[in-house]
Amino acid sequence: MQILDGIKLSKEIKQEIKLKVESYKEQGKRVPHLGAILVGNDGASRTYVDNKIKDCNYVGFESSELILEDTITQEELIAKIQEWNNDSNLDGFIVQLPLPKHIDQEAVINAIDPNKDVDGFHPMNFGKMALEMETFLPATPYGIMEMLERYKVPTAGKHTVVIGRSRIVGRPMSILMSKNGNPGNSTVTLTHSKTEDLAKYTKEADIVITALGVPEFLKADMIKDGAVIVDVGITRVDDPTSPKGYKLAGDVDFENVKEKASWITPVPGGVGPMTRAMLLKNTLLAYNKNN
After folding, report:
1. Is 119 a catalytic residue?
2. Count of C-beta atoms within a 10 Å radius of residue 96
3. Which of 212, 276, 220 is nearest to 17 (CA)?
4. What pTM, to 2 d.p., does this model score?
5. Does the annotation place 166 within a ligand binding site?
6. Does 164 appear as a known binding residue?
7. Nearest to residue 86, comparing CAs of 115, 62, 61, 64?
8. The dihedral of CA 168, 171, 174, 175: what is its sign?
9. Strand spans (E) along 148-249
């Protein structure tokens, strides 16, 4: 068993980006600029945005954040998005999800300029991804693909089972793993909450990518020996022995599954750090398009 170490790999990627930014400065160019819009005071979202700003500071990007009250109307939020769409000094930005229930998420995503949509959620970018054209990839699937490539995990001709069909992870993951390229060229089965006898599929899989959000759902008897396991799930689970009162658990029963897996991502420290690093890479792509 070998660990797919997202912390180590994300540090390497951020260092590569940092060197590029330093070269831009030496040439007298402006540096890439990433923005984040946060609506409300959700603790997890706040932490995530704070970490993105830290990443920007580390690699030398300029960063901006806009924190809005959760009482803001949809029209007011879209007006703010239009302001950022028209800001030529801002290469890309994200609107942190989830949004308050009174705001239509699809309308907000559609309002973002596709050329600044570094989350890769706009229908235009999603369509380009499906057609294997250069575009912004959703950060988590992008991070997984980068991880598989850099660790030289073979994917061609393999059977990949994806658990979960969200637009953020599962569905784009199924598209990317089946694309003509490396990594890719897998035969993909996309499973979800309505799939009957899900274990039948995971037992046959060479690669299992799970984004279900159910702690320790994937057990050792659900995979075959030598399978590659990528765990996207992360859930807070009560733990009286922890100073915080909780621990972070993935979708995979890690301690038992690792004994059968060839490669496996830990939680935390696997996919999460890669997601943040890929947002930086998307911003760099937006910057290069703008320059």
Report:
1. yes
2. 20
3. 276
4. 0.95
5. yes
6. yes
7. 115
8. negative
9. 159-163, 187-191, 207-210, 228-231, 235-238, 246-249
Write out pLDDT tens, residues 194-230.
999 999 999 999 999 999 999 999 999 999 999 999 9
Q: What is the DSSP letter of 34?
A: E
Q: Is the alpha carbon torsion for 264, 198, 238, 44 positive or negative? A: positive
Q: What is the pLDDT of residues 130-168, one digit of tens each?
A: 999 999 999 999 999 999 999 999 999 999 999 999 999
Tell me: is residue 165 an annotated ligand-binding position: yes
Distance between CA atoms of 172 and 109, rounded to whole angstroms?
A: 16
113, 117, 119, 231: the catalytic one is 119
pLDDT tens digits along 260-270: 999 999 999 99
Query: What are the strands of the beta sheet with 92-95, ordered from one edge?
Result: 62-68, 33-39, 92-95
Place of tokens 């890439």: 32
In this structure, are residues 88 and 262 in contact, taking their beta carbons and an 8 Å threshold? no
Distances in whole angstroms, Cα of residue 124 to Cα of each of 103, 131, 163, 179, 198: 21, 11, 25, 18, 32
Continuous segment of H or E residues that includes residue 150: helix 139-150
